Amino acid sequence: MEGGVRKRGSSWYYYYDAGSVDGKRNKIERKGGKTKKEALNALNEALTKLGSGYVEPKKITVHEYMTDWVENYIKENRKLNTYNRYKEIYNRHLKPYIGHLGLSEVKPIHLDQMLLGEKKKGLSGSTLQNIYGTLNSAFNRAVKLQIMYDNPLRFIDRPKRDKFVASTLAVEEIGQLFDALDTSKYNDYIMSLGLKIVLELGLRRGELAGLEWKYIDFNKQIITIANNLVDTYTEVSLTTPKTDERRDLYVSKGLMQLLKQHKVLQTKNRMKYRPHYKENEFNGNVCDFVMTWEDGTYVHPNYYTVKFNKLLKKVNFDRNIRFHDLRHTNATLLLQQGIDFKVIQTRLGHSDINTTLNIYSHVNVEMQKKATEKLIEILG
Description:
One of its GO terms (biological process) is DNA integration. Pfam families: Arm-DNA-bind_4, Phage_int_SAM_3, Phage_integrase. Keywords: DNA integration, DNA recombination, DNA-binding. One of its GO terms (molecular function) is DNA binding. This protein is of the alpha+beta class. It has three domains: about 5-50; about 60-155, Orthogonal Bundle (DNA polymerase, domain 1); about 170-315, Intergrase catalytic core (hpI Integrase, Chain A, Orthogonal Bundle), CATH 1.10.443.10. The longest helix is centred in the last third of the chain and has 21 residues, at about 255-275. The chain has helices at about 35-50, 60-75, 80-100, 110-120, 125-145, 170-180, 185-200, 205-210, 255-275, 300-315, 325-335, 340-350, 355-360, 360-380; strands at about 5-10, 10-20, 25-35, 215, 220-225, 230, 235-240, 245-250, 280, 285. Strands 1-2-3 form a three-stranded antiparallel sheet. A three-stranded antiparallel sheet has the order 4-5-8, with no helix packed on it. Strands 6-7 form a two-stranded antiparallel sheet. α3 crosses α4. About 50% of the residues lie in helices and about 15% in strands. A hairpin with a 4-residue loop joins β4 and β5. It has 14 helices and ten strands. The chain is elongated.
């Protein structure tokens, strides 16, 4: 491959032979900088790209590429809630900074300024990591498609995630919540049942909402977690659990008895409403959900959050507790009883045990303390 540099006016340009197109020689000439050295460096970079098979595409903006990536790649290959999250991250956090730039024009300085600008808004380390991760995935795919020569994010340090300490409820506080519910009212009754299921099994709210009778084995006392009913902002969608893996959970006799009683009540309601009893259809199938209202309508996953917040105000809790923290409460209580982290990982549905270890590191310290005390006692 031949090339060279020359001065035109006050600037230096580089040129090279990029082969033939339709039988004609394709000569490329670009501005290389204000000095001969800058032009030579630009020439060497261009020749390196050409030698690696990279072909500079027609000019495409970051906005054009990201829109295509989200709508045609993510939407087709990822879950709907992932698609919505990536779309929101791009529109809210990325587009204002780099959407107008050409894809080949994006430099590390642009990305550094973008992350710094978002950090100044008070965004958490977790949110900044999500922004970084979204753009990194998009740019890595652009490199594979050879519409970017390199991913400029590799020159930027990944934001650090804030250390997360799970909020949990004490046993006495759990009792207060149940005491505040009037189970003679159906909305309180269904919330009470939901609380008992989540506290024993550590389910996510979508897994609770998506639980179907066909996944409950009353003889073996096993519940299979196979669904996740999620609010995607535009609709409610039935998908697989967060890690895509089903998990079988052993259930106490007490909870199984409550579920049997609930099934009887549901059957009575079906007879009561007859043709007006609702059928819940998702993905072309009628779903026989456990958690339903009296008329058969599924309980929206957001209901648990809203109802739980009202319940907290009723009992005058002054701490910031979320419905999701019942899942953390479940895990913490098990760990405090000496249950192995691997068992907790399986029950919670974490794909990586490090996720479990990191979330409950504070409990791990207490477990180590007890272990140390026992060891000292043995050693005398």
